[in-house]
Amino acid sequence: MSELPSICWGILTTGKIASWYVADLALSRPDAKVRHIVKAIGTSDVSRGRNFAQQYCPKETPEIYGSYEEVYNDPDVDIVYIGTPHAFHKKNCLDAIAAGKHVLCEKPFTLNARESKEVFDAAKEKGVFIAEAMWLRHRPLTIELQRLLHQEKVIGEIFRATSDFGCELDIPNLPLDKYYRQNSMGAGSLLDLGIYALTWIVLSLDPELTADRAKPKIMAAQTHWEDIELTSTAILQYPSTGRQGVATSTTMATGNPDLLARIHGTAGSIEVHGSCPSAPEAFTVYPKFEMGAGDAVVRGKGKTYDFSAPGRGFQYQADNIALDVLNGRLESSIVPHFETIRMMEIMDEIRRQGGTRYPTD
């Protein structure tokens, strides 16, 4: 067997998302396409960075830097993974780009579409790769589901889809310094959770991945506590096909782990299962429900596709992004720049209708 190609990562922050990502980079797996090496970690607390490296990089000894700039300037780092809070993404991306580094930045890519365009323009001018870390789109489950939906048409013509992401956080009683209490940081359910529910809707109803495809009509409502958005509901309607989707998100209740998304077609339906909409583990294809005796709904036998795997699922995104960089591409074929902008524009419109504004708007 030929040796796997390798790529060297610089990691920004030692928070929860970064720990999940790095842990998956270190997984030993037979299906790996790339050897991932964590070369550097940037953190405001070097001691915490060392502890992070000991726990999540057991086979490596990365450099621990007390500033992000040192990560950008490390000649051994090929690509920077940005796992900082939303409001810092734009600056972190621009700084990494200016240093000539390739970038993978967590979702939401920025706080609004205007900021995303600014970052992408800077990357194009510098000639470096950059992509949004929407790991849901890279998962084998997601890719196979799209094939069954849009190529095999296993449930006929799709006409509607629903998805909800809820995580109870008790916003009014959180300390004032917490992210979820700060509007200026992009707090709220939409950017953190709703982006996943919206992604399920778009993947289900809008199979084309082209920059010039028609945009959906949007009808949205939001609920707030002070200036913090708590609950968002959006209806997306595609005039050319009549397809409709409902995406909801909230920090007032935890969602149903047994039903992450439901997709209806003229010949049946699909239900997606897992711990939450960002981490699906399986989906079941059902024939059309029928009316039985006494008007009872009869559910036919479904076929379940199981995609449970070691780790959390970041490894698939890491492999795809690494291969893009190693092959000289400047954007991801799975989450191209225009798709990140499209999703940001959808969320901008939901916020406009719902009344959520950030200082950067």
From TrEMBL:
GO molecular function, one term: nucleotide binding
Family per similarity comment: Belongs to the Gfo/Idh/MocA family.
Lineage of the species this protein comes from: Eukaryota, Fungi, Dikarya, Ascomycota, Pezizomycotina
Domain (Gfo/Idh/MocA-like oxidoreductase N-terminal) ranges: 10-130
EC category name: oxidoreductase
Domain GFO/IDH/MocA-like oxidoreductase, chain residue ranges per copy: 149-271
Keyword tags: Oxidoreductase
Official protein name in the record: D-xylose 1-dehydrogenase (NADP(+), D-xylono-1,5-lactone-forming)
Protein's organism: Penicillium brevicompactum
Record EC number: 1.1.1.179
Pfam (any one): GFO_IDH_MocA
Catalytic activity, as annotated: D-xylose + NADP(+) = D-xylono-1,5-lactone + NADPH + H(+)
Keyword Ion transport: no
Gene3D superfamilies to which the protein is assigned, alphabetical: Dihydrodipicolinate Reductase, domain 2, NAD(P)-binding Rossmann-like Domain
Keyword Oxidoreductase tagged: yes
SUPFAM superfamilies linked: Glyceraldehyde-3-phosphate dehydrogenase-like, C-terminal domain, NAD(P)-binding Rossmann-fold domains
Domain of life: Eukaryota
